[in-house]
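Below is how a single chain appears once it has passed through the pipeline. First comes the sequence as given, then the structure the pipeline wrote out for it. We keep one example in the README because the format questions we get most often are answered faster by looking than by reading.
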Amino acid sequence: MLMKYRPEDLTRLPRSVEYREQRVYLIDQRLIPREFKIIGLKTVEEVARAIKTMQVRGAPAIGAAAAFGLALYAETSGAGSREEFFDGFYRAYETLKNTRPTAVNLFWALSRIKKLVEENLESPIDEIRKLIVAEARKIADEDVEANLRMGHIGAEILPEGNVLTHCNAGSLATVHLGTVGAVLRVMHREGKLRLLWVDETRPVLQGARLSAWEYHYDGIPLKLIADNMAGFVMQQGMVDAIIVGADRIVANGDFANKIGTYTLAVLAKEHGIPFFTVAPLSTIDMSLKSGKEIPIEERSEEEVLTCGGCRIAPEVDVYNPAFDVTPHKYPTGIITERGVVYPPFERNLKRLFREEP
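Resulting structure:
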């Protein structure tokens, strides 16, 4: 498809994660909106910690950060033998793989580099180092390209008017532009987006802290609402479409996304509002048949008991799943870089991968 815009036409933000000079550089998302800071990570362990603690978050950004973690190992390893180099590589791989369980892009990116290494086991170590770094950069560049394509595709099919989104699937959640973020930015550029409704997204407030910050930064008109207001604004006829990201989409079209997405899907169905998820092919896991097989991460009770470091509840038991699963009967379609997948998802997702070049 002919793309009318370049990334720099759509956002003033830099890439959220990059690799240069033997450092993984990323925007520390825990500090936004109070402070905008880019940090440089020097070890695999620091990259793993950044993923675990959500200094970097969003499935595509996590995947790119993990790939760059392996690039960092490749360039900085002082291994004295082939055996020592490969032992260290697999340790780095396992360290990064064990950071977050739900976002499939993490495992996709790491497995892609591991496969490349195993296809070149007999090559000189210096050549393998270069291959790892080049592949990690390729993964990041492909993410930007995929987002740009999804932005153009999504902006074509979504109705003009008011759009509601949940959590952050913008530039901060990807290498650049965002999945949802690219669609919103193209719509805004073309005058199709009148107003963006942003759910605050409890308990960690990715909508309030991150989405509201980055879309406001790029001049997109928005209104921030508490999560429990979404149904009311739909009922009042103030939402024309809903678009959300995804951390894992499985073979039947079920998908995991930030907790609260399922609620929006049910409400959208009740009010007859188009509901789309936007994600690259790397987020689609055809090895799982249904959403019941998706591992759901449970996070610290402190995320619910506190807000911004202030206690908001007594010492009580907490259940804090980070994601929920939206069954395939709810989405209107899945926007990918290869086009929009409509129901029946099980058949059409298979066709999408059969047709992949």
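The chain has a mean pLDDT of 96.

See the next section for the split statistics.
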